[in-house]
Write a structure and sequence with these properties.
The chain has about 575 residues and is an alpha/beta fold. The chain is about 35% helix and about 15% strand.
Length: about 575
């Protein structure tokens, strides 16, 4: 056991504010694991929220575990020290419960690395009565848990605040009743929103498509997504304050959850429906508490500028002598007051997400903004004294044509011209990512654009703008994007590939592992799935009305606009009025 590793954990804990440490044995231990480094994990507000809820339940002592950085991994290997939790420095395998918060497909490899390092059997089927029950939640667990199914005992489908308490209560009752592992997992399967993959058998057709996912026990055929109706019932803010994060100077505060804009590419817009906002009074109370820890508030939400009281909220933050920050804004809801407040908070860049450069392609994806919105937002930022602009864009969107790629360079030049006309000589940054079709979106059936085509179009954009030194182009790695594409819509067979890649050294071993398993990435990436195909996530119920997503795909192909969520709306089926609509929605 490495004294150095233990000492680093002790020092890290001592530098935090807000962590709760329970004496070992006072409560059953729950190791809340984030499959990335401490720096990344503690920048994730969802991780803070679930940490607080587990501790507040009184049913478990929540401790945190993280992927060690490269230097610490070498020390683990040198000293044969198992992965330990931060709070009490106990090895992962000593905990009866381990929960992974999974937000990103590339972290699947890190889950296996952490289990291995924590001396926990990688395969759920290999775990016995003495081993932990391994749970996973978060966005990736919600929209398609199947690639991770061989490694996870229980998935939380949807938002976890209520579900985790019910799961812990069911686990505790089962332990008190002396249930063995099999019967204990059956008891967990009775909790709404909990999916136990070992109780479902996957069968495949000769062409490799999924034939069935058949229940093997008395478990639900469809697992309902859980979602919190009243956000104010659960705190949505930083639980543990630490400087060692990407947002070390900020206190994170969730102001809203979900989005009702119906952007057809956005998984979060469908899996976290309906849109909900926190009360202004509740947010003000949280901001007053934040003053004790930090001088800056990080506002978190799918569309921060859509918050109905955003101008009042940011005015209150400034009146408290605090500053604030946001990740990105919608061009059509940026207000003069918000732009001025951002400038007063020291923002040097306004980030907008048009996603596509042409009006036609924005109609396809139902983005709901046009060039005039972007021009107005750029002018508001410049007038407020914010010099730089960042635009988020995608390449490879459904229906994309060469003219849409040319429009990206045109948009960049036009934006720079508007910045200069408004008196701003700052830098324009284009952040461009390959589009990945995701489950539970209208594009879930569509192929991903061929990688050579995407790389060709990215090169064309660079070439068109190479002479303008005030335009910066940032591109996500296409290699990683296409690996994400396989994992995001993959089936349970990919578990064997993940295991082989882990044993072969990680993501770099993925192509070899995929070939060894007799699987082809083209099967997952480049074919259009017919309407009747059983998709690996069909057993999960997001609450959407039958036919709704297919209808939205048809509307995308016709470039038809779908209006945002509104009170009494029966459009998608999530709200009770829509759920009762016979035959699905009628946009």
């Amino acid at each position: 056991m490495s004294w150095l590793l233990k000492e680093k954990l002790r020092q890290r804990l001592a530098a935090e504010q807000g962590a709760v440490v329970h004496a070992p044995g006072s409560r059953p231990g729950f190791a809340l694991a984030f499959p990335n480094t401490y720096h990344v994990a503690m920048s994730n507000l969802g991780f803070h929220i679930i940490y607080r809820e587990i501790d507040a339940s009184g049913l478990a002592a929540c401790e945190r575990a993280f992927l060690p950085d490269k230097r610490d991994l070498a020390e683990h290997a040198r000293t044969a020290t198992p992965l330990m939790t931060l709070e009490t420095r106990r090895p992962l395998y000593q905990f009866p419960l381990i929960g992974f918060a999974v937000s990103f497909e590339m972290d699947y490899f890190n889950i296996l690395a952490m289990l291995d390092l924590g001396r926990v059997p990688l395969l759920a089927a290999d775990r016995d009565e003495a081993d932990p029950i391994v749970i996973a939640g978060g966005p990736c667990a919600t929209f398609n848990p199947e690639p991770l199914a061989p490694f996870i005992d229980a998935f939380v489908i949807g938002e976890g605040e209520e579900t985790i308490r019910e799961l812990l209560a069911a686990w505790r009752r089962g332990r008190e009743e002396g249930l063995d592992r099999e019967r204990l997992l059956l008891a967990l399967a009775a909790v709404p929103g909990v999916y136990i993959p070992r109780f479902y058998a996957a069968g495949y057709n000769p062409d490799g498509t999924l034939a069935a996912l058949r229940p093997l026990a008395a478990v639900p055929a469809a697992i309902p997504r859980r979602w919190v109706r009243d956000l104010d019932a659960f705190p949505g803010q930083t639980a543990v304050v630490t400087a060692a994060t990407e947002f070390g100077d900020m206190f994170l505060l969730e102001i809203a959850r979900g989005c009702g804009r119906h952007c057809r590419f956005c998984m979060a817009g469908y899996c976290f429906r309906r849109p909900r906002v926190r009360s202004l009074d509740g947010l003000k109370a949280a901001i007053r508490r934040a003053k004790e820890y930090r001088g800056k508030i990080g506002l978190v939400g799918a569309a921060v500028s859509d918050y109905p009281g955003i101008d009042d909220l940011v005015a209150f933050i400034l009146a408290q002598g605090l500053k604030f920050s946001v990740a990105s804004l919608r061009a059509d809801s940026l207000t003069p007051a918000l732009a001025q407040a951002l400038a007063a908070s020291g923002h040097k860049t306004v980030t907008l997400a048009p996603e596509a450069a042409s009006d036609r392609l924005r109609r396809v994806i139902n983005k709901g903004i046009d060039t005039a919105h972007l021009e107005r937002a750029v002018a508001l930022a410049a007038a407020a004294g914010i010099p730089h602009v960042r635009l988020y864009l995608m390449v490879g969107l459904p229906g994309e044509q060469d003219a849409d790629i040319a429009a990206i360079a045109d948009l960049a030049r036009a934006t720079r011209a508007h910045m200069l006309a408004a008196g701003s000589s700052g830098k324009l940054t284009l952040s461009i990512n390959p589009f990945i079709p995701k489950p539970f979106t209208p594009f879930q059936w569509l192929p991903m654009a061929p990688r050579p085509l995407v790389e060709e179009r990215l090169a064309a954009i660079r070439a068109a703008l190479k002479n303008d030194k005030n335009i910066e182009i940032l591109v996500e790695s296409p290699r990683e994007a296409y690996l994400q594409g396989v994992l995001s819509r993959g089936d349970r067979r990919l578990g064997a590939v993940l295991l082989a890649a882990h044993r072969g050294g990680g993501p770099k071993a993925w192509p070899r592992a995929l070939a060894a398993a007799g699987l082809d990435e083209a099967f997952y990436l480049y074919r259009e799935r017919p309407p009747g195909e059983l998709l690996p996530w069909n057993h999960l119920d997001m609450g959407l009305a039958p036919g709704y997503l297919r209808q939205e795909l048809d509307r995308a192909r016709s470039e038809k606009y779908t209006s945002p969520c509104r009170p009494g709306c029966a459009l998608c089926g999530v709200c009770p009025a829509g759920r009762a609509a016979e035959g699905g929605p009628t946009p």
